[in-house]
Structure formats: C-alpha cells, structure tokens
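We modelled the chain as a single entity of 286 amino acids. Its sequence is:
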Amino acid sequence: MADNAFMKSFSVSLALPALVFAGCNPGIYFPDRANAPMLSKAHEGHFVVSVKPQTNSSDSLHGQGEPVSYALDAAFAPINHLGVIASFRALNNRITYDDPTFFQSDYGGTFNGHRWELGVGYFDAFGRLGRAEAYAGLGRGFLDRESSASPERNFTTNYNRYFIQAGAGIANSNFSIGGGARVAFHRFDHFQSPNNPQLRYLILKDGKDIMAATPTFFEPYIKEEVGWRFIRFNAQQGYSSSIGKDDISGYGLFYLSIGLSFVFDPDFFQPGGLKRKVIPRRLRHR
C-alpha cells in the first residue's frame, strides 16, 4: 500500500509541470498555411483548395469537434515579377482540452473563426527549375471561444494581421518543393467577454491589455506539390512560435495542410504547349 501511494505521488509530481505548461496556452491564435505559389512568369495563376486536420477533445457544450478546417488560396501574376495573393482561412469548431482545476488552469474550449488576407510581392525564376519569392500583406479576422467548463474565459474578438514572408524552391510542370518563413503581426480589437471584463488582461504573460499589444509569430514552412500540370496534390507543413515582447504564453504549434492545387500556365495553351514542345516565355528572350 505504501509503495502504491508513493508511486501515485511520484507520478503526480512528474505530471504537474507538464500540465501547468500545457495550461499556459490561451487559445487566441491558430496558425495556418502560407500562400506560397512560387510563380514563374506573367499571367500565371494558382488556386489551392485545402484542409487542415484538427486535433479535438470533448467538450460538454458542443460535443466532438469537426475533424478539419478549410482554406482557399489564389495567386496571379499580372506582369512578370509581380505577384498578387489572396487567401481565406476558416477555424471550424476546433475543440481543445478545457479542464480548469484547483492546481492549474488548462483553458481550452471550442473555437470558431475566419480570416481574409491580401498581399503583393516579387517573384523570380532562375535556371530551368529555380523559384524565389517575397510577399507582404494584410488581413482581417474574427475569433470566437465558448466553453461550459470555463465560461469566464469565453470571448469574441476581431483582429488585423500584417505579414511578410519569403521563400524559394524548385518546380516544373509536374512537381514543386520549397520552403520559407513568415513573420505575422496581430492587433486585436473589439475584444469582448460576456462573463469576465478583465479577461483582456489575462491573455499575455505580463498582464498587458491584449488590445494594446502586438503579438508576433515566426512561422517557417515547407511545401510540396506533385501531379499533372493543371492539377496537383498539395501539402504544407509549418511551425508557429510566439516572439517579441508581447509573448503569448506557452505558444509553439505545428500544423499540416493538404489539398489540391489548380495551375494556369499560359504556355500550356501555346501551339505545342501540352506536348512540352513550346519554349517557356521566361526562357525565350534570354
């Protein structure tokens, strides 16, 4: 009996630090894929439909959450070296573990939201396969959190998002692989909690008002595409880490996004293009 009691106490002492660390995550930011089209010429366009698997845990208010959230990406080059990107992101009934106790505060809940983004940037193609790009843009989003286990942590908020990103890789008409990094800055506004007016001061480590802060995230990613020239399987993996003085406590998340990429390449519609006999325009005048 004494040995059993000792083992239980020892197990609890090992588990508590991990639980406390997990409980630091306030669930106000959920990373998603970067719109990284790797364009190569004027009038080229990319459109991606993708899903991001969501790890859910049970919550008494909504039951089991949805298995995936959705995203749309579009990119077009009106002239050579100039790219325009647009994106939509949805957070779809994502449930994270919510079990506040006397010993620690593990605040999760059920999250829903969406975000639009628009960006412009520079791209270039080098050699026969090389690609490089850099974009900057802005977005507008909404996030909602609900939970029956900790209703004092429920909130709704809007936010503006500003980002810069750069990447490089290799590609042809059947595959591409590349990677890069994005830095994203958030400014939250209209943050409201129906049960706790002080919640806005409990999100950051130092007790600063979340609407007066600029949480910043560093997000490296890699992406792969393979398939036919008009349609390809698309995958992206990435990591998000909170950086800067307005640090969201305990943050550091991986994500996986998979989908289909639809490609418009004007060279495909030139005589001989579908048979790969046309010389790509980016190489014709070199």
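As a brief sanity check on the tokenised model: Confidence is low (pLDDT under 50) at residues 1-26. The helical segments are 2-23, 281-284.
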